[in-house]
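User: Some background: our group keeps a shared notebook of sequences we're curious about, and every so often someone picks one and asks for a predicted structure to add to the entry. Today it's my turn. The entry only has the sequence so far, pasted here. Could you supply the structure so I can complete it?
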Amino acid sequence: MGARVRGADASGRDLVITACHSVAAAEDWLAYARLAAACAIRGDAAKAAQIKAKVDAIVPEFAISRYKARRCVIHRDAVGRDREHMVAGLRKAGVPK
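Assistant: Of course. Here's the predicted structure to add to the notebook entry:
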């Protein structure tokens, strides 16, 4: 999934979302967070809100600060880019700071 997420552009976001759905089925809060961010970036606010609710159910105190503290990145060589992109998506999905 990492290569797909890292290399996603406007035409590849559907692949990212499909991959995240598969991983999220395991109740992994990080996969749901990534899925919410991807949906928000794609412009699907309703889906992002729905997925964010799942993150909130698993980790009620989830916030962008928790994501940053975990140092959750998809690829080591793209730490800054991945973090900025994910944080932007989480903000669009309505995740608190």
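Suggested note for the entry: The chain has one domain: 2-92. Residues 60 and 72 are 18 Å apart (CA to CA).
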